[in-house]
Specification:
By secondary structure, the protein is of the alpha+beta class. It has helices spanning 35-46, 92-102, 109-116, 121-124, 133-184, 193-235, 241-277, 307-395, 400-430, 432-475, 506-523, 526-529, 543-553, 584-593; strands at residues 3-10, 13-20, 23-28, 58-64, 69-77, 80-86, 103-104, 287-289, 294-297, 304-306, 481-484, 490-494, 497-499, 532-535, 559-564, 574-576, 582-583. The protein is built from 14 helices and 17 strands. InterPro entries: P-loop_NTPase.
Length: 594
């Protein structure tokens, strides 16, 4: 399970080696000794960085594990650094997840966005770009359209199957009867060109009439589908977009106002309840201990009161919070109801567009079928006229045998056509269940893809909330709570009210940045993609909190690598000593000595 890294000309390390063991690995040293550079070398080996040492033309990182060996070479090419070799992470999406959610140095994009108040949504949803959701939806819909067409043909084939089976049986009986008549005719004569032409014309007309039957059946089904689609389109009732949007926006604003009021009241209640519960009212006002009850001055208005009255007022405040919470729940249900109506409206709009496209395509198909029917009927009339002409020409000089031969050939031709058509229809009908299953799978895949982005957002918010619930009591932060909104805006509550990030300490902002990155870590299952977590530049966090942070991060990744100064005794793990490494600062010191 050990990882061996050999580094040459990467960041501030000229040459150095180290071994990582599962658990916490602390790179412990003073400034300019290669701590951060070693983490950059790990990132290079995994494929997310290429920090070639300044002034060097080539660099290299090799990584040896129990399962594999990989190496990344860096080469300076003009003003840029070219990377070759095989990094540990071969998938681009895995490298993006590692860079955003597992490599938590000072320049981590999410930590920096939290510090600077930048938009978090593009960062927290960036891995979704590699899933190419919209393109996959379009491809799945195209495939479903193809399946729908094949399914329509298979359903038509299944409907026609019993009729074709009966027709083949009837034709087989007719052929047997004609062959028996021919055998009974001792004077059967061979056919001539006229009889052959008559048989051919009859056979062709049979095929044309079969084609007319199929076209008429298909045209009728298309007309029924067109009528059904028109009726559904006419029956669609789509709500007014602007009015519904205004209602939803107003409901969201009202819910937001109620939630902020509740948060403010809870802050006031929790603070005062804690003072009374811990019997620390003397911190805020003068208290006179009496026999029956303690007398004190209200620390808000200064009026004389007693502890029981304060407790009663706090109970009243709790009831007020409960009432407002009930009202907020009603508002939340209203928002959910309106959101569901918006989604229903969007579904109906999508269905309206689909129906309009379907109606247009069905009209085009109907026109094509009518044209083909006209052509087939015209050909049928021509063949009927030709058959009558041929029959008149041969009736004067043909006998019973000739008629039988002609009828037999005609019957066999019809039988062959019917068998061929039956075989084709059976083949199509056999695919019916498979096509239905395939269509259901495609529909479920389209639905899953449409929900994917919202599910990731919800998982990220839930993971952030879980991190905050752990961090607030663990680190005794100056804020009571924090949350990510549905638009991925970071909202912090301090002293019962919404607070700006500028009002927080450097360490608190860094904790929020880490919590946000860890939310993405959980939402995208980065622990299953990337076995190592890198943590660097936590100068804003006190030493005692570093130990708590180390415990909090332990177990999330197989290898946890952190930088630490010698005085950071709270960071306890396997130490990596860079004293044997050759670093850039050594060269600078040597030049200064000269």
């Amino acid at each position: 399970m050990s990882w061996r890294l050999d580094v040459e000309n990467v960041a501030g390390i000229r040459r150095g080696s180290a071994t990582l063991e599962p658990g916490l690995n602390a790179v412990r040293a003073s400034n300019w000794q290669g701590k951060s550079s070693f983490l950059a070398a790990i990132a290079t080996a995994l494929g997310t960085a290429s920090p070639l040492t300044e002034g060097a033309t080539e660099g290299r990182v090799s990584l040896s594990t129990d399962e594999r060996e990989c190496a990344v070479e860096l080469t300076r090419d003009g003003g840029r650094v070219r990377t070759t070799g095989e990094p540990y992470l071969s998938d681009e999406a895995d490298r993006v997840c590692a860079d955003l959610f597992a490599f938590l140095g000072e320049e981590n994009e999410i930590r920096r966005a939290v510090r600077e108040g930048d938009d978090l949504e593009p960062l927290l949803t960036r891995p979704l770009d590699f899933e190419d959701i919209d393109a996959n939806i379009a491809e799945a819909r195209r495939e479903r359209d193809r399946v729908d067409e094949a399914l329509s043909e298979a359903e038509d084939a299944a409907d026609r199957l019993p009729t074709l089976v009966s027709r083949v049986s009837e034709l087989e009986a007719e052929v047997e009867e004609l062959e028996a008549k021919r055998a009974a005719s001792a004077d059967a004569a061979g056919g001539d060109e006229t009889r052959e032409a008559l048989s051919d014309a009859r056979a062709e007309r049979s095929r044309v009439q079969s084609r007319i039957d199929r076209l008429e059946s298909t045209a009728e089904r298309v007309r029924e589908q067109l009528e059904s689609s028109r009726e559904e389109l006419d029956g669609l009732d789509v709500e007014d977009d602007e009015e519904l949007a205004r209602e939803l926006d107003a409901a969201k604003r009202e819910l937001h106002r109620q939630e902020r009021d509740i948060e403010l009241l809870r802050g006031v209640y929790d603070a005062n309840r804690r003072v009374v519960a811990e019997d620390r009212t003397e911190l805020l006002t003068d208290v006179t201990h009496a026999i029956v009850d303690d007398e004190l001055a209200c620390w808000v208005c200064g009026a004389e009161t007693d502890a029981s009255s304060v407790t009663e007022r706090l109970d009243e405040l709790a009831e007020r919070i409960e009432r407002r919470t009930t009202a907020a729940e009603a508002s939340r249900e209203r928002v959910e109801e309106l959101t569901e109506r918006v989604e229903t409206r969007e579904k109906r709009r999508r269905r309206e567009r689909e129906l309009r496209t379907e109606v247009r395509e069905l009209r085009e198909r109907r026109s094509d079928l009518e044209r083909r029917l006209d052509d087939a009927r015209e050909r049928d009339a021509e063949l009927a006229e030709r058959i009558d002409d041929l029959r008149e020409r041969i009736e004067s000089d043909v006998g019973q045998v000739t008629d039988i031969e002609s009828d037999l050939k005609y019957a066999k031709a019809r039988l062959d056509d019917a068998k061929s058509e039956l075989e084709s229809v059976e083949t199509k009908a056999e695919t019916l269940e498979s096509l239905r299953s395939q269509r259901q799978s495609l529909t479920e895949e389209i639905t899953r893809l449409r929900r994917r982005k919202q599910e990731v957002k919800k998982e990220t918010q839930d993971a952030f909330d879980a991190s905050i619930r752990d961090i607030v009591p663990l680190f005794e932060t100056g804020f009571e709570s924090a949350r990510l909104t549905s638009e991925f805006e970071l909202v912090v509550a301090r002293d019962g009210r919404e607070a700006s990030l500028d009002a927080l300490s450097e360490g608190e902002v860094e904790l929020l940045g880490l919590a946000t990155a860890l939310a993405g870590y959980e939402a995208f299952d980065v622990g299953e993609r990337v076995p190592v977590m890198l943590v660097d530049r936590l100068g804003g966090i006190a030493d005692e909190n570093l130990g708590r942070l180390t415990d909090y991060l332990s177990g999330r990744a197989t290898y946890l690598v952190m930088t630490a100064y010698p005085e950071h005794s709270a960071v306890e793990g396997r130490d990596i000593d860079p004293s044997d490494w050759s670093v850039v600062s050594d060269s600078a010191a040597a030049k200064g000595a000269e």
